[in-house]
Amino acid sequence: MPAPRADTMPAPRADPKPAPRAETPPAPEKSAPPPAESPEQQAKLLDELYARLATAPDEATATEVASAIEQLWQHSGSPTADLLLARAAAAAEAQDRALAMKLLNAVVELQPDYAEAWNRRAYLYYLDNDYKRALGDLRRVLALEPRHYKALEGLGNLLQHLGEKKAALEAYESVLKVHPNLPDAKKARDDLKIEVEGQGI
Question: Where are the domains of the chain?
Answer without folding.
Answer: 77-130
